[in-house]
Amino acid sequence: ITRGGYEVTELFAELSLPILHDSFLAKDLSLDWAHRYAEYSSLGSANTWKFGLSWTPINDITFRATRAEAVRAPNIGELYSPVATDFQFIVDPCRPDQWALGADPALRQSNCAALLTAAGVANPSTWSDPFAAFTKVGRTGGNPNLDVETAETSTIGLIYRPTYVSGFSMSFDYYDITIDNAIQLVGAQDLADHCVDAPTINNVFCASLTRQVGGAGAGGIVDFLRGPQNVAQFATRGIDFTIEYRFEPQDWGWGDLGSFDARLVGNNTLELSFVPLPGSATDDDLGESAASDGSITSAPEWQANFDLTWNKGPWTVHYGFNFTNDLLRYENDQYAADPMRVAPQYKYIDGLRSSTIQVRYDIDQHMQIYGGVNNIGYDVKPGTGVYLGDPNQEAVYLGLVAQY
């Protein structure tokens, strides 16, 4: 039986400071500040903070900006998953014929010489892996030495509420987020390669490998611990936007037709990148339907949700439309390596275009009946990753709610 856990104690402070109000420089100018201190029994202390500024020069428009740092503590599984025996084939990067394959061959040669000499190898330049023909026996499991992931976030945007159009508003926000020390499961081969390609052998990769000291197998890898490490980085930039309009046709002299609420919420992702290990090439995930390493499931450049709700007396009717642009069938780096990987007409798979309708009738203040159809027009195509029972498939429902 394997058990693990941790305790956390947190202190939180928040301040909202009005600087100007109804002055010739601003209708409103305010500063927000927040700080959270957390003490984890498993990894020590962590701090998060936020600074925000809001400026309304005139009644119709507000500018806003934030700068924040957030953290995510490793979860129980990442820390304490039970260690199990693992079998992996590793091409030892300290074989002299592998030195030239490093990003910096001279650095790899120097690091390998230090490792092999410490293991009792007399001449690293003529060393051959004594276990090259065998799979390496190691371990895989959690890592109790994990640290927190850290996210740096910057946003800047505006809100526009024209006083001459009652019920209308729109907002646009640009965001830039980078996650450092992201937790990533590191494979056995990556452990071996990055151990000797790092600036020094004093790193988490070398610490996860054991080489035999002395004897006929001197220098060979005899154990490895494959588990999560704080080694990855994620970065994303984009624009979020929301447009809302609530209106009643009666205000325009069209009679009592009830009220309408319309909302469009969307996002334009400008960057979505992933660096799995220090020194690795940046993986551009934007526009992909899925990543082979599991870092994303889909990454559309454009996505939007439109909702329109009508209310009149006991009746409520809601219509929703979901949209994403078409997605690449394969990953960006695969197309970069082979632009003619597939014919142009097969390069993309269809994005999401589906509608939802719900009708509700309030019988009285205690009871209502409702029904609708989800995902009208959702087209399930072979090879798009959609499976039977997918939550996006079309579904009809009917229900009754009673509250007393």
Q: What attributes characterize this protein structure?
A:
14-stranded antiparallel beta sheet, single chain, 20 strands
Written overview of the protein:
- The protein contains four helices and 20 strands.
- The protein has 404 residues and is mainly β.
- Strands 1, 2, 3, 4, 7, 8, 11, 12, 13, 14, 15, 18, 19 and 20 form a 14-stranded antiparallel beta sheet that branches. Strands 5-6-10-9 form a four-stranded mixed beta sheet, with helices on one face. The chain has a two-stranded antiparallel ribbon with strand order 16-17.
- Residues 380-389 have low confidence and may be disordered.
- It has helices spanning 76-80, 105-118, 188-197, 332-337; strands at 8-21, 28-40, 44-58, 61-72, 84-88, 136-140, 149-160, 168-185, 209-211, 221-226, 228-247, 259-275, 283-284, 302-312, 315-324, 327-328, 348-349, 353-362, 367-376, 395-402.
Write the layout of secondary structure elements.
Elements: E1 8-21, E2 28-40, E3 44-58, E4 61-72, H1 76-80, E5 84-88, H2 105-118, E6 136-140, E7 149-160, E8 168-185, H3 188-197, E9 209-211, E10 221-226, E11 228-247, E12 259-275, E13 283-284, E14 302-312, E15 315-324, E16 327-328, H4 332-337, E17 348-349, E18 353-362, E19 367-376, E20 395-402
Parallel strand pairs: 6-10
Antiparallel strand pairs: 1-2, 2-3, 3-4, 4-7, 5-6, 7-8, 8-11, 9-10, 11-12, 12-13, 12-14, 14-15, 15-18, 16-17, 18-19, 19-20
